[in-house]
Each structure stands twice: as structure tokens, then as C-alpha cells.
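Bump. Still looking for Phenylalanine--tRNA ligase, mitochondrial C-alpha cells.
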Amino acid sequence: MILRKLLFTFHIRNNCTRGFSIVHPKVVQSISLLNQNFPRDDYTNVTEKIISHLGQNLHLQEGHPINIVTQRVLNYFYASFKNSRGNPQFSMYNNLCPIVTTAQNFDSLLIPTNHVSRSKSDCYYINQQHLLRAHMTSHQSELMKSGLDNFLMVGDVYRRDEIDRTHYPVFHQIDGVRLRSKNQLFPNDNDLDIFELGDYTENIGSQDKQACHTLEAVKLMEFELKSTLLGVAKSIFGEDFKYRWVDTYFPFTQPSWELEVFYEGMWMEVLGCGIMKQAILTNAGITNKVGWAFGLGVERISMCLYKIPDIRLFWSKDSGFLNQFKNQEVNAKITYRPISQYPQCINDISFWLPNDKEYCENDFYDLVRTIGGDRIEQVTLKDDFLHPKTGRRSHCYRIIYRHMERTLKQEEVNLIHKKIEKEAAKQLFVNIR
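Sorry for the wait, here they are.
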């Protein structure tokens, strides 16, 4: 999951401004986002619903739970890492443009050209060269090229995904990077080094270390990384919580780990981290340092910390939700109180998949979100049927409708459902059953 969490572009002099506009492709074959024009092509799959989230910047809205959790993470880093003059070592970037290039989102992080995270079913493409960032790590290389050794990045990221109470196509991430030189790691021992003899751009190795790194350097970096992130978790959840480190794999770090916390009877992954692939640093012009990096999802931590039951609530304008966090001290213990329990409306949709066209489930999810908006609580595949004689495949989806701020009438839901059926047949070439 973190694998799809860390990637995209950046401009230190940010020229993006709030707002968006979109022109129907039948009129003009271009799309305007944040005062920039982009040509459409076969890769274009970003929807009006997704575009409407650009520039909302929940992480910058004072008194919003996303902003509060972000501030708690920042406070920990500012307090824990200071230079000799008492100033914070980490700099913060919270207004980086969400429109990035494929080079920034993938190539700069050594993502293979055939990797699944590049697919149209996973990302929101503006065109073949540009997309909405899939993770904040996409800004990593540009920031390092600018000369930064210690920095944090926070912003909204965009990813095509399933529909339920814990998944939303737009969410927020905090990423961090720390680079260390030989003198910083081993100030009192000239016999120790951070690189093995030979080609330090080599990426081969194991979960223990990359072949180009010395074991001593990796172990020191691992200790600092895990100690730092465990400190972040304790500053948020308190001292009394269960956690564990799990070995994992990312294309951009080696070795790599996930931090899991025990929440509501199950282990929940809250962040991913690791020792940065040395080739990423080398490509950024850095040949005398090693680094560690991490990425965490703000919504997931916020839902756990404040007992928020549905991820859609973060986008609510309802004062009954927002006022529970407004004017609260950043470390205040807040437990979300449901503003109301509105009833669900449940409708099913069944259709035959096209024989001569590619069908992608995330295309259907996007279509449902575009038409139903945040009235859609969950979409689940209820039945997958393969006809034994014709070989045709049929899908049946259950769509659960529930508004977060008012009661939905079944008549209203039926109109939305009919439109979903009509557009699914038109856009996805399915045959409604």
C-alpha cells in the first residue's frame, strides 16, 4: 500500500493558484487546471469530481482534523531536531503543486516502466506526461537537488481506489527525508565509512542493506529512523499502544519497513519507511551522503485518533462536524460525536461486461463517484458470474447510498441509480441486466 503512497513533482517557486476549470472534450481537446492548460490524449482519465478537490487544501485549514494531526507531526520534528543555535533542522513544504510529470512521480523514484502503480487504473492522468500526484514522494528529488538535507512535505494526493468508509480518491500524506554524511554519522571514528568499496550506485543487496552501503551506516540510520517514527507515533497515540515493525518492499527504499499499530482488534499499517535507494541520491547529484525517508497517511491516523467512522466526513462542510475540532488545542483529546445517523439506501446494479472492450473496475467506481458524489458510502462486488455456454461475464454491484448531512429519499436515489446505469452502458460499453 505504501508502495502506491510515495511519488510526484514539485516547484519550489510554486506557481499554482486555487481554482480549476474543465472544458468538455467534445468542444476543446484541452483541460485547464490551476491556471495551466494541458492537451488531452488517450491517457486522460481525471474526472470533474476529482478536479473539484484541487485547491481545497484541508491540511492548511486551521481547526480541521487534517490540519491538527499535521501540526502534531510537525511539532514533534521541530522539537526533536534542532541545530546548534536551537533552530529546527527540518524545513516544511505544504503548498507544492499537485500536478506532476510522470518523470517526477515514477522515474525519479526508480519505479519500473512496467510497474502496476503506473497504470491508468491506479492513477489520475491529465495526459500521458502529466498526472495528479499519487504520493508526496514525487517531490523528493527536486527538493534534494535544491540543496535540502532535512525536509517534510504535506499535501493532497490522488489515487483511484475502491469505495468504502476508509477509502477516498483524495487523501493527505506527510513525507520526510533526512540525509547524513560520513562525518555526521561517524564524527569520532575515521576508520568507519558509509560506503563499501566499489560502485556506490549499485542497487543490489538484501533487506539487511544495499550492497553499496556499509552495515554500520545502515544500522545507525535504521536506529534513528525507527526511533524518530516511533516517537511521532507516541506523540500522537500516547505511550500505551501496541506496535510492530514489518519488513516490506518499495522500489525507492532498501531495506524497507512498515509501522503497524494494534487498533480495534487488528493490526493497522500507519506508515512506510526505509533507507533511500542510493541511485535516487546519485541522480539528484548527491554522492557523499545516505538517507532515510518515510510517508504516512494523515486521514488514517486522524480516523484512529479521533474515532471518525467515515473518511467522507473530512470533506464535510457541516458545522456539526467542523465545530468539534474548531478552536481546539492541538494536543486536545477529541472523540468525534456523530452528528446524526441517517439511514442507508441500497440499490444493486447488474450488467454484462463487454466482449470486445477492456473493462476496469476502477472506471466503474469513478463513474459512480462522479454521478453520486459523496452520497455514495460504499460499492461492493456482490456477484461475479461467468456464463457456462456463452462465456460472457456478469458483475453485480451493491451500491450503498447515505448522505452525511441529511436523509436521502429513495426517489432521489433511484434517479441517481438510473443515471449510473445509463452512463455505465454508454461509457463502459456494458449491457445492463
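The two ends are 35 Å apart (CA to CA).

Edit: fixed formatting.
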